[in-house]
Amino acid sequence: MSLPVGDTAPGDIWRRLGNRVRARGPGAPDGYGDPQGALPLRRAICEYVRQSRSVICTPEQIVVTCGTQQGLYLAAQILLDAGDRAWVEDPAYPGVTALFTTALRDRQMVRVPVGDEGIDVDAGRMMAPDARAAFVTPSHQYPLGMPMSMAQRTALLGWAQAHNAWIVEDDYDSEMRYDGHPFPALQGQDPARVIYLGTFSKVLFPSLRLGYAIVPPALVGAFCGARILMDRHPPNADQYVLAQFMAEGHLARHLRRMRSLYAEKRRVVIDAVSRHIAAGLAELQPCDQGMHMVLWLRRGLDDRHIERLAQEAGVSVRALSPMYAAGHGRSGLILGLGGYGDRQVEQAVITLNQLLQTAQNLRR
C-alpha cells in the first residue's frame, strides 16, 4: 500500500526513452559495466540531491546500488567489524534490523528509543557510547513519520564526531512532503561522517532496482570492492534510461505530480478514518510527509491479530509492534497511501473499523 499508484507510473515516457537508449545508445547490450555505476547517472544523481536535499558530494562519491537494502547491507558490512555495536532506531525499518539478526549476527544492534524529536541521542549515549555507527531516518522516521529535530541532529553529529563514529542516513520518502519545506539532509552538515542512502524504487516503480549510496571519498573503494563481490554492477541499461529521464526533466515533473496526487490520497485516508473509525478505538499519528500513515490502536488491541483479520478480509495493513524491540512495542497499524482508489480506501477503512469493534467486544 506504500507503493506508487498506477496513474503516476511514468510508463509511456520510460518506454520511449528505454527503446531509444537500448537500441542505439549507451544502454545497448555490451560487456560488464562500472561497479560504481554509470557516470551519466552518477552525475544526474549528484545534481539532483544537491538541489533537492542540500547534499554535498561529487559524482565520484556516488555508488549506484540495487536499492536501499543493498546500501544498508554494504554500509553495515564495511563500517562494522565483528563485535562492534551500532545504534538502530526503536522502532525501525525491518530491513535494518533483519541485517543484524541474519547476515551480520556477529555485529551487535543496540535499539535506541525514538521520541517526538526522533532518535533519543542521550539514551544512545547511555546505552552504547562506543557504538561505531548509527542507522537513522532523520527526514521521516520509519515507521512513525516525524522528522528529527535540529537539536537531535546536532546532538547526533556531536556524538559521532566525539567518538569517531559513522552515521548512515536513509533518506527514504524525502520527496513526499506536503506542507512546508523539508529539513535538508543530515549529510550536508557533515559530509565526511555521513553515508547517505537514497532510492528511486518508491517514487518511480518498485521493479526499478536502482538506488544510491553517497559516501566519503575514503570509503568509495571499499564500497565498490564489496559491491563487486555481491553482483558486480547495477543493471546497465536501466541506469542510462534513468540518467536520460532525469536529464530531460522528467523526474522533476513526475515528483511534482506525485506530491499533488499523494497529498490528495492522504486527505482521503484522514477523512475516511475520521468518519468511519469509532472514537476511542484508534487515532492517526499526525504526519505531513511520506507514503504511509500510522494508526495507533486502543490499548489492549493486538495489532498482529488485527493484521491477520484484515488480510483475510482483503484489507492490506501492517502491524507496527513487531518493528519495536521485544517487549517495547506499541500496538498500531501502517496504512499505505498508494495503490487503491478513493472508494476502495473508504471501504477498507469501514471494514477495518468493523474488525476493530469486533476485537474490542471480544475483550469485554
- N-to-C SSE series? HHEHEHEEHEHEEEHHHEEHEEH
Q: What would CATH call the homologous superfamily of the largest domain?
A: Type I PLP-dependent aspartate aminotransferase-like (Major domain)
CATH level-two architecture of the largest domain? 3-Layer(aba) Sandwich
What ranges have pLDDT less than 50 throughout 5 or more consecutive residues?
Answer: none
Which secondary structure elements does this structure contain, and how are they paired or packed?
Layout: H1 11-24, H2 39-53, E1 62-65, H3 68-79, E2 85-90, H4 94-101, E3 108-115, E4 118-119, H5 121-127, E5 133-136, H6 150-163, E6 166-170, E7 194-199, E8 211-214, H7 220-231, H8 236-247, H9 250-276, E9 282-284, E10 292-297, H10 303-312, E11 318-319, E12 332-336, H11 342-363
Parallel strand pairs: 2-3, 2-5, 5-6, 6-7
Antiparallel strand pairs: 1-8, 3-4, 7-8, 9-10, 10-12, 11-12
Helix pairs in contact: 1-8, 2-8, 3-7, 9-11
GO molecular function, one term: pyridoxal phosphate binding
Organism: Serratia rubidaea (Serratia marinorubra)
Domain Aminotransferase class I/classII large: 31-330
Written overview of the protein:
The relative contact order is 0.16. The chain is built from eleven helices and twelve strands. It has two domains: 12-248, Type I PLP-dependent aspartate aminotransferase-like (Major domain) (Aspartate Aminotransferase, domain 2), CATH 3.40.640.10; 253-362, Aspartate Aminotransferase, domain 1 (Alpha-Beta Complex). Helix 2 (39-53) packs across helix 8 and helix 9 (250-276) crosses helix 11. The protein has helices spanning 11-24, 39-53, 68-79, 94-101, 121-127, 150-163, 220-231, 236-247, 250-276, 303-312, 342-363, and strands at residues 62-65, 85-90, 108-115, 118-119, 133-136, 166-170, 194-199, 211-214, 282-284, 292-297, 318-319, 332-336. The protein is of the alpha/beta class. The chain has an eight-stranded mixed β-sheet with strand order 1-8-7-6-5-2-3-4, with helices on both faces. Helix content is 42%, strand content 15%. The radius of gyration is 21 Å and the shape is globular. Residues 31-330 form the Aminotransferase class I/classII large domain. This is HTH-type transcriptional regulatory protein gabR. One of its GO terms (molecular function) is pyridoxal phosphate binding. It comes from Serratia rubidaea (Serratia marinorubra).
